[in-house]
Design a protein that fits this description.
Elements lengths: L2 H24 L9 H35 L10 H24 L1 H7 L27 H9 L3 H16 L11 H6 L3 H8 L16 H6 L24 H17 L4 H9 L13 H7 L4
């Protein structure tokens, strides 16, 4: 089977899963919500990301991997089972680092925010991906893996497997998995927390495949029935236009930096947490949790 036919098959499988989930939600067989305009916007975002990334990854992201691999510390065999096992873990840690930075630094949040802009949570939400992530260096945490000695091909394959795993997390149809699975792996319950705008849930559960990273680094939050997830952003954009979804935060960021009263303010606008304000009382995740009495 060619790479192209495999990729096409995976896309069709995801599309069928989205359609099946939508039908089951409509028939009230499973829990969830959807809106046709919202789902179409998410799919349009995925198409745009596919087109943009296929150009930008080749033009921007591949050469650092090639350069670092050519100057690698050692050579790791692609035929070693242990090498792939190690890569599964290291790739997921790289994802955690990227994902956490994409929430806690506004510059990278501007590239990632579109994924959180839907007020619905279903499999089509997984398609709502960034058009600008490659431009702002989202691959940087993975460059270290090439320098260590994993080939770019191995890295791209495992990264694709990780992202494919995350597709099924975007659903309300699955309540809780077995306790042992919830303790180790990222699950729909854990990822619903990540997509929620409730103060308790903000900037939590960054994991890709393994929830253990969040438990190790203090960013884990269990989903609570008493605090149902409210999906979307702190201030929702109320638009289904893919252009608005892709670039609204970049526009706001440029405006805020341009209106900054000092170099220090401009720096914090760029690289401080989303919601940062000069008076320290902006709607950051930490401030919103404090105001809600959550510490």
């Amino acid at each position: 089977m060619s790479t192209l036919s495999l990729a096409t098959g995976l896309v069709l499988m995801r599309l069928l899963a989205v359609v099946l989930e939508t039908v089951l939600i409509h028939l009230q067989v499973v829990r969830g919500s959807y809106e046709l305009k919202d789902s179409l916007a998410s799919i349009a975002m995925r198409i745009g990301q596919y087109v943009v990334n296929n150009v930008l990854i080749v033009a921007i992201a591949v050469w650092p991997f090639t350069y670092l691999y050519n100057h690698r510390l050692t050579t790791i065999s692609a035929t070693s089972v242990w090498a792939w096992a190690a890569l599964v873990v290291l790739d997921d840690f790289a994802y955690y680092v990227f994902h956490r930075a994409s929430h806690e630094c506004r510059f990278w949040w501007a590239a990632h925010v579109n994924h959180h802009s839907s007020t619905h949570y279903n499999l089509s939400t997984a398609a709502r991906q960034s058009w600008t992530g490659v431009l702002v260096g989202t691959w940087a945490p993975w460059y270290v893996l090439a320098w260590i000695g994993f080939s770019p091909t191995m890295i791209f394959i495992q990264s694709g497997i990780n992202l494919f795993y995350q597709f099924w997390l975007h659903t309300e149809a699955v309540d809780k998995c077995p306790a042992w699975f919830e303790a180790i792996f990222n699950t729909p319950s854990h990822h619903r927390v990540h997509h929620a705008a409730n103060p308790r849930y903000l900037d939590r559960n960054y994991a890709g495949m393994f929830i253990i990273w969040d438990k190790l680094f203090g960013t884990f939050q269990e989903e609570r029935a008493a605090d149902p997830c409210q999906y979307g952003l702190i201030h929702n954009i109320e638009s289904y236009n893919p252009i608005v979804i892709a670039f609204h935060e970049w526009v706001a960021l440029i405006r805020d930096v341009a209106h900054s009263q000092s170099w220090s303010e401009a720096w914090h606008r760029l690289f401080g947490p989303p919601g940062w304000q000069p008076d320290g009382e902006g709607p950051t995740a930490a401030n919103l949790r404090r105001q809600a009495g959550l510490g």
